[in-house]
Amino acid sequence: MVKSILHIDMDAFFVSVEEVRDPSLKGKPVIVGGDPDGRGVVAAASYAVRKYGVHSAMPIARAKRLCPHAVFLRGSHHLYSEFSARIFDILDCYSPLVEPMSLDEAYVDLTGCERLHGPVTDTAQRMHDEILDRVGINASVGMAGNKLMAKIASGMAKPNGLLRILPGHEAAFLAPLPIGRIPGIGPKSGEEFKRMGIYTVRDLAQLPLELLEEVYGEWGRRLYEKARGISHSPVLKRDDTRSISRETTLEEDSTDPAFLESTLSWLVEKAASQLREEGLRARCVSLKLRYSDFKTVTRSHTLNEAACEDHIIFDTVVGLFRKLFTRRTRVRLVGVALTSLTSGAPPQMELFENMNAKQWQKLYAGIDRIRNKYGFRSIVRGSSCSAQGEL
Ligand SMILES: [Mg+2]
Questions:
Q1: What average pLDDT does the segment 3-26 reach?
Q2: Looking at the structure, do residues 36 and 83 belong to the same domain, yes or no?
Q3: Span 222-248, mean pLDDT?
């Protein structure tokens, strides 16, 4: 059966929320991110500021050099979560199958909903308009027969557009595009492919499966399929997939365990602070390593008690890392994922008036308060200090 999958992605989400709050910002160069005189990165850039070459994930000091007259805002995760919840309330009205990918991005499976909602393009337009009317945010919508193509379509529809790729036309649509359009091929991989003379998806699609598998392993097979627009990944309901994860591709591949552990510590801090902010605890902690040969391994550990404290999660991650990192092969990417999330329930040990747990809780509440006020970088674990950049 041909599926009808939507990928909905808000345009410059954090900036758009700020514009709703203060309409005088509309059309101005606005940057949401860390302290413009500090080491932070750009979290979101308005379209007016992108003309100056500013984009998200860029060091904020560089953004300031490129566009010194921009309006710099520190942003509020609470506010963005609130807007996000209102957007997801709308999406939930259109399909029982909504898979959130982040605060401002989701897949919606509309397969079989035509009789209820009418043609998929009309439904997508209505969803777009309803988000704009009720929340005040522009979205871009991709429509296709699978998640991969829907995501590519929404990316190309930006800003504020709708694009449908008809099932059966995937490979032809992709062929002329630069390979960077394929989700998962970032700037670093893109450069590597360019050095091999591969610029477009057509070039990539000409590589035989055997070669891709030999060079990239499992990722090679996925590249082979992506180049043809093939994806079988289902849209999963929110509860099945809810996870908080952070990962980063290192600027240079590394075999240094101390550096890698420090980077993991930093990722744990980021993930755990989001966990606490959303009032959640995680039962399952996962580590992901991608080696320079693109072999990717993940290892998970289930905790006896769901936790939200940095030190518990970090100890688990480091335990997994030390067991796994025996090849001494260069590592290209590290990641941490927290799953099996439960909300609010206090840890059982509190029932026994365990002062130690309470003290930890107070400590983390204090850390989160400081961060809310002065930014994430204002207080970090000693073990995170040699991690590079802001993630
Ligand atoms: Mg977005």
A1: 96
A2: yes
A3: 86
Is residue 254 located within the same domain as residue 141?
no
Domain count, the chain: 3
239 CA from centroid of ligand 1 (Å): 21
Residue ranges making up the domain that contains 47: 1-146
What's the rounded Cα separation, in Å, for the pair 69 and 2?
Answer: 49
Specify the pairing of strand 71-73 against strand 30-33: parallel
Q: Is residue 237 part of a domain?
A: no
Amino acid 153 reads A
What residues act catalytically?
105
Q: 13 with 123, same domain?
A: yes
- Ligand 1 is an ion; its neighbours by CB within 5 Å are 9-10, 13, 104
pLDDT tens digits for range 360-377: 777 787 788 777 776 777
Distance 11 CA to ligand 1 centre (A): 5
What average pLDDT score do residues 106-129 get?
93
- In-domain check, residue 98: yes
The per-residue pLDDT of the chain, averaged, comes to 88
Tell me which H or E stretch contains 33.
Answer: strand 30-33
User: Which residues fall within 8 angstroms of residue 101, CB to CB, at 6 or more apart?
Assistant: 107
